[in-house]
Amino acid sequence: MERTLGIFPAVLLVLLLASPAAGVALHTFRPDLDTLVSCDVKAIAEGQDGMVAFATSSGISMFDGGWTSLHSTPWEYETGMRDDYLRSLSFDSVNSLWIGYAAGIQTYDGEVFFNIDEGTIFRHMPVHAVLRSGDDIWIAIGNSGLQRYSNGTWTWFRPFHAGGLDTHTIDRMALDHETGSIYALSVHHGLWKTGGGYEDSSFEQVCDIPDIDMITGLTDYPFGGVMLYNDTTIYRYSPTSGLTVVLVSDELGSGDIRFSDVQAAEDATLLIGTTNGMYEVQDHEIQQHISRSTTDLQNNKITRVFPDSSRRYWFVTPYEIGYYIKEKKLLIPIEITDPSFSPAYTATNPEPLEVNIIYTEAR
Asked: How many CA atoms lie within 13 A of 30 on its CB side?
């Protein structure tokens, strides 16, 4: 059977990967000028509605396109925010804030503060870290190990007891998003983890990390395992692959560059706070460097970094809090017409038209 095919001019698609411009647009905020309470940020968390909360030494600052703040008032000690000096915070599964103080912990549902006074233990001890895992909340408290709140029930993981940890104080916690394990770091003393899941929540020490006493930081990694770091080296650890080096400070350039905070975005891009600004690194390549020499940053010392779900990459210096937006890579089709093809073509048993796809990066 003979068919007559109408052939339009051949089109060659060139797909351009749009990359962020070298001169990235920073959005920066300073205390007093922008209703920001303080740049002394102790912790950062994001709610399910996209609200980003900053726990500071002078109250809570929250950003959702604009700034709002929360402060304590002496006449509302029992019903309001307990103290302006915060140490940690996290959102739970119903989007309430859990707020850790130098002595005690509260929850805040957007309208009402509620004091957690379980056995008075929270009222008198500092909260080092708060971590959400599903519907559970984990709290590192004073020199008393960990507490877990799950389905209305508190469980105490006592130091040097069965199922607990062989240390009194936990400084950092992180969640393994692949296995569900909770990792707990005691700086200079060791790392512990659970087996994963609610039923296997007893802790065991991670013993296959050399020089664990040199590790000072612990954070989540989106593709399983966790990241550990000190001021010169970033590692990834998982039970299957063990400890691997992700990045060393020498890869960021010459000079005495020291890491202060490390976070991973959802695509595993690293945000690294250093003594020489913030670096955005992917696959060992520097994507952006935010510093006084590259932008109008006021100070090169980055104390905190944070990637949120809106692709804002946050940074904190002693004088400002700011972010830039990580633009998504776009595929842009460009039509290139080949004039050698006629507008009509008659063929018997026509063969498929093969078109090469060329990928290039926009400059």
From this structure: 6
Radius of gyration of the chain (CA): 26
Percent of the chain with pLDDT over 70: 81
Beta bridge partners of 272: 262, 279
| 130 Cα distance to chain centroid | 14
Mean pLDDT of the chain: 85
Cα dist from 166 to 46, 47, 174, 206, 269, whole Å: 31, 33, 18, 11, 34
Three-state DSSP class for residue 288: strand
As a whole number of angstroms, the distance between CA 213 and CA 247 comes to 19
For 242-272, the DSSP string reads EEEEEEEGGGG-SS---EEEEEE-TT--EEE
Give the per-residue pLDDT at 206: 94
Query: Pick from 252, 212, 250, 253: which is nearest to 230 by CA?
Result: 212
Amino acid in the structure at residue 64:
D
Question: 32-35: which pairs have CB atoms within 8 A and are 24 or more residues apart?
Answer: 34/67, 35/61, 35/67, 35/68, 35/69
The confidence score (pLDDT) of residue 6 equals: 35
Q: According to the model, what pLDDT value does residue 4 have?
A: 31
CB 287 within 8 A of CB 20: yes
Q: What is the pLDDT of residue 35?
A: 76
Q: Are 106 and 137 in contact (CB under 8 A)?
A: no
Residues 314, 322 contacting (CB under 8 angstroms):
yes
Contacts of 121-126 with C-beta under 8 Å, sequence gap 24+, read 121/147, 122/147, 126/87, 126/100, 126/101, 126/102
Report the DSSP beta bridge partners of residue 189.
none
Which of 172, 276, 275, 175 lies closest to 229 in space, CA to CA? Answer: 172
Spatial separation of the C-alpha atoms in residues 304 and 285, rounded to whole Å: 21
pLDDT interval class at 333 (50, 70, 90): low
Q: What are phi and psi of 117, to 5 degrees?
A: -125, 40
**Res. 8 pLDDT band, cuts 50 70 90:** very low
Alpha helices (H) in the chain, listed in sequence order: 121-124
Q: How far apart are CA 36 and CA 55, in angstroms?
A: 11
